[in-house]
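S1.2 Input.
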Amino acid sequence: MSSNPNTTQKALLFIPDISGFTEFVHHTEVYHSKHIISELLEVLLDANVTGLQLAEIEGDALFMYKLCSAPDIEELDTQVKQMYIAFHTHLKRYEYERICQCGACSSAYNLSLKFVAHFGDVDFIKVKNIIKPYGSNVIKVHRLLKNDILASEYSLITKSIFKKSKIENEQSIISRYDFGEIEYTFKTLSHLKKELPYVAPIPHDAPKHKLFYISKTIKIPVLDLYEIVSNFDYRLLWVKGVDALEYEKNKVNRAGIKHQCLFDKRSEIDQITIKKEAKPNQWVYGESTNQAPFTKSLSLYHILEDVGDGVTKLEVEAYADFKPFGIIFKPLLSKKLKNNILENLKELILLIDSGFTIDNYLTKNENP
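S1.3 Output.
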């Protein structure tokens, strides 16, 4: 069956809906929550195993449909299970990998997923080359996102689906909406978490040789400074000697993320984001590479501490493991790297003192 904008057809209407983020005020939290939701919506789309068509991305939800003469309840259950497991596996991995402690990142593991499914006649509306379901049943499936179910994670199906299937041990609910009464039933989904695959934490052994330690006090809130230091979008604004930076945009930086720096238009260095335990009131951001001269591994940590009144103490530590005989170059490597870091911190402070704010930067780049 094809979606013909000139005919009424029967379709399964299906909405996976993400919830759980509170209304954040800080710009970093809003920015990160947007990217977390974007990644999760991509995960749900990748878990589409039953040939559903995407009609529209609606904030934290996907509106999907499938033309069919009758819904297949077993196929629907399979689709729900696949998306649910993929969703929570991603969140579990994200909790291991995350380096940011903002409200969005630290509460992402609390996000929940619900599904609403309805079956009925739909028309189609065509706007340029985009064809979408249209009509009263489309309105109904969206209204059902608000319902009388107390559980946070569930699969809701209307009578239009379960009247055609034998569903045991399920109690139907009748709710009243502006379009009238509608009957539906639901299944809770929390038991599916027992089927999540094992996700191993990312191990990282810090190199043994400490090269140097730098400490600066900067007049900027800790959350803002952490965002500037850890977000690759701002890297070229304050790191000297880097001509270009290749990284995956529209994704929150976290442990295991790789990026590549082009130094002096000739040297390409691959780096990976790392993490380590932080003390209370501290934020830690780290990067590691195995391409630094004379070393097997070189790690750089930025340790930020909120000292109050919008002031942040920034400490930078460098560690290395050396190749055979590379240890003799430790003083040279330490001096050169320390000088580079001091120059970068100087640029960072100048950037902040110039009146740079994340809000202004985001506004400028979203509305060029």
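S1.4 Remarks. The first helix runs from residue 27 to 46.
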